Amino acid sequence: MCAPGGNAVSDARDAVLIDALLPQTQCTRCGYSGCMPYAEAIASGAADINQCPPGGAATIRALSRLLGVEFRPLNPANGRETPPAVAWIDEARCIGCAKCLAPCPVDAIVGAAKYMHTVLAARCTGCELCIPACPVDCIELHQSAQQQPAPEVRLNRARYEAHTARIDARAALRQREIDAKKAAAPRRAAGEP
User: Considering 18, 153, 158, 159, which has the largest number of Cβ atoms within 10 A of its Cβ?
Assistant: First the structure.
């Protein structure tokens, strides 16, 4: 594995291997915007291997073996290891504001503005990002022995990439619309069509 300050090609290759060991919850508790940015930070030496609460000790051990570094317990500053959980929406309290949709990194919440929302438990990674977005506190995490198994890492990554691409495309479209309005404003002020 590449030591801190290694070359960019090695760091990128190492980041892919590191990312493959991460749980792909995309929870941001590691301090990075997702699992791949965290993997890139580990590969470059900017982050330690013990910052992933969802992966916990098992992921830290796997990263330790892969990178040939000493195992360290989970950094408590990043949270604590807990059993897998799934978000649950109290449908009686849901006001249909849709504020929980965008933060969900794997599109596990479905619904539309002014309609009740629900969580697709089979897709939920338990990232908790939807909880602070809810203005009426109707989202909770539930842990259950009957809970469905965690979604496959490969599927989590694909859903996250699709979600991110869609959000980026919307932001780019919105920026083009704003730029067009700004460009048209001086012409309108001058009486031009």
Answer: 18
Q: CA angle, corner 37, sides to 171 and 86, nearest 5?
A: 80
| Rounded Cα–Cα distance for residues 129 and 165 (Å) | 18
Q: What is the pTM of this model?
A: 0.78
Q: Residues of the chain with pLDDT > 70: what percent?
A: 88
Report helix, strand and coil shares of the chain as percent, to nearest 5. Answer: 40, 5, 55
Q: Domains plus CATH for the chain?
A: 8-78 (1.10.15.40)
> Rounded to 5 degrees, what are φ and ψ at 41?
-65, -40
Let me know how long the chain is: 193
Residue the block writes with tokens 């977005």: 133
Lookup: tokens for 78: 């990043």
Q: What pLDDT digit, counting tens, does each position of 7-30 carry?
A: 555 677 899 999 999 999 999 999
Spatial separation of the C-alpha atoms in residues 74 and 78, rounded to whole Å: 8
Q: Are strands 139-142 and 86-89 parallel, antiparallel or unpaired?
A: antiparallel
